[in-house]
Amino acid sequence: MAALLFIGIVVYILLFFASVFFSLKFQFGEESNDERGKKILNTSYGFAFPLVILGWFIIALVDDYIKPFSLESYQTAIWFLVTGTYIVHAVILFSLKRTS
User: Fold this and answer.
1) What's the structural domain count of the chain?
2) What angle do CA 34, 37, 41 make, to 5 degrees?
3) Could you give the dihedral angle defined by the CA atoms of residues 70, 53, 90 and 2, in that order, rounded to the nearest 10 degrees?
């Protein structure tokens, strides 16, 4: 069971780094300079980054009303919030790039 958890963590970290690479490649590449690329980038930001506010709100509600987090649990929740948002951003970029 511990090996499966370790594999899941490694896959998640690799997915995060691939998302960062794809997002930076798109953002600083030639494709984001034209009108289509700017629209794709703005749409992706519009979908992904409100998740930070919603996720922070949910974390605060859970911390206040359900079960208080320890410092380590709070740091882990915020880590998943930030990395998950970035993964969502890259997935939306990828799908909008393919469809438009």
Assistant:
1) 1
2) 140
3) 20
Write the CA distances from 91 to 19, 37, 41, 74, 76, integer angstroms: 7, 15, 12, 26, 22
Could you read off the pLDDT of 13-64 as tens digits, one per residue?
A: 999 999 999 999 998 988 778 888 889 999 999 998 899 999 999 999 999 9
Strands (E), the chain: none
Please tell me what DSSP assigns to residue 34.
Answer: S
Query: Residue 83 domain-assigned?
Result: yes
Domain that holds residue 55: 15-99
Between 95 and 33, where is the model more confident? 95
- Is residue 89, in this structure, part of any structural domain at all? yes
Q: Is 61 exposed, middle or buried (0-12, 13-18, 19+ CB in 10 A)?
A: exposed
CA pair distance 32, 40, nearest whole angstrom: 8
Tokens read off for 66: 């359900």
Alpha carbons 84 and 86: distance in angstroms, whole number: 5
